[in-house]
Amino acid sequence: MSVRKIPENRRTKDGRSYAFTVTEYGLDGKRRQYQSKAYMTYEEAQRAEQAYINKYKDIDVNPHITFYQAYVKVYEYKKDKIRPTTLKTYSDRIRFMKLFWDVELVDLNAELYQRWRNQMNKTKLSDRYKTDIQKLIKLICNFAEKQWDFNLRKFYNKLEPFKTPGAVQKEMEVYKPDEFYKFISVVDNIQMRCLFKSLYYCGLRKGEARGLIWKNVDLENRKIYIKQQVQNDPKTNSDKDWYVCACKTNTSHRTVPISEDLYEDLVEFKRQLKKYKSYRDTWYVFGDKEPIHQHKMTDWKNKYCKKAGLKQIRLHDFRHSCVSALINAKSPVPTIQALVGHSTPTETLDTYSHMFEETMDGVTEYFDKIYEENKQKNSQNCE
Fold first, then answer.
1. Is 356 found in the same domain as 216?
2. Which of 26, 82, 142, 160 is at 20 to 30 A from 135, Cα to Cα?
3. CATH code: domain of residue 312
4. How far is Cα 20 from Cα 35, in angstroms, rounded to an integer?
5. How far apart are CA 325 and CA 322, in angstroms?
6. Tens digits of residue pLDDT in 215-225
7. C-alpha dist (Å) from residue 318 to 7, 30, 117, 339
8. Please, what's the b/e burial string for 232-259 (b: 16 or more CB within 10 A of its CB; e: otherwise)?
9. Could you give the residue ranges of the DSSP H alpha helices within 56-109?
């Protein structure tokens, strides 16, 4: 970098005639020359040069890269490393960040972030969803630091979860045990009975249920091994464009027990399937040589909800119903976490915190009991 006097024809009307220049290399490897704005004196330009050096210190790529340019690079980098559904999430969420698009990464600051939060708070999105959207900002900052040596910690540390004071978390639609038994009582198809019982008793995600093959159903030891899932191509969401992929997270790869009710149906269902000469253990439990269509699962669910005279819930709500039943049974959080495949107990608590609050009525029972026992003991001693 160097400070120099710029040509007369490029000087400003008020006499600013000094500038500094710097040679930089972009993400494409091409060499570019950046020239600063004009300054009144040599010393002023020199101070600006030093400030520039401090601002862009240690950055190995074009230091003027904008937030949106960084997003494009992150998207391209991640293309062959993550699931298509996650990529679609990135492309869906970048539209919420237009305020940042033309801002250089080094210019991200607390004031800009607060303006963005104010914009997001004017939407009707839930606090949890807004916090999830914000994760894309964190992803881009982490990528820029790791890959290009940007120092964005000061800005990154300003990012906080959205939490509206006094906001009541939206209730999850679930079936209580008696409602589930009413629902399953009208399911007259053995495969569908196994499907909905697996969603409810095992807390499976619908993609995990679609990806389940008989080879991973251990009836002898009454265990199901969750090793993969089936998803539709997010670009089309067509049941014809399905693919097999890894589970949502590492902890989603898990072993879950088979309850007696589900076990009996699985045994009978497999007995019926074995009558077919073409049957193999590589068949999908919910399907055959190919997994069941997602829309077919929804159609069956809607049919049985209506037949049972129950409220319509989503397929994913059977998983929530499973957790709700376990919480009401006062199952330990780590047990619930392991069953549903959450990464940490904190994730389980954060997701279902309102359900845990509903079970607070019984927490004093134990203390009331030991209080009464102690009172009776002291009374006997006094006699």
1. yes
2. 26
3. 1.10.443.10
4. 6
5. 5
6. 999 999 999 99
7. 73, 54, 34, 14
8. bebeeeebeebeeeebbeeebbbebebe
9. 67-78, 84-93
